[in-house]
Specification:
rod-shaped
């Protein structure tokens, strides 16, 4: 039984290492969200860090419109990055977990 416990602890450490590696890799994943008319683009990493915002000059004349564009497009970018982040981390955690009865239902 002690050997089984040690094996399980090793698997948990392995899972944690996979999750950490996945988090690092998510920093290298770049997603882009663009406003429906293409006037504003937001680049974001898989860890939800905004890397770049490109604004068409035509939006610079209307502060309120620009603010609306920023809110909508940044929120779309965060949503997309969150979906990628959660899927990647869930897969890494599920892949590295030891086979414990009932645990697989936590990752469905």
């Amino acid at each position: 039984m002690f050997g089984d416990m040690m094996g399980m602890m090793g698997k948990l450490k392995e899972a944690q290492e996979k999750i950490e590696a996945t988090k690092k890799r998510l920093n290298t994943i770049s997603l882009q969200e663009t406003s429906s008319d293409g006037l504003l683009t937001v680049s974001i990493t898989g860890n939800r860090a905004i890397k770049e915002i490109n604004i068409d000059d035509s939006l610079l004349t209307d502060k309120e419109q620009l603010e609306d564009y920023l809110v909508l497009t940044i929120n779309k970018a965060i949503d997309a990055a969150t979906r990628v982040n959660e899927a990647e981390l869930s897969a890494a955690a599920k892949d590295g977990m030891p086979n414990i009865p009932g645990m697989d239902s936590l990752f469905k």
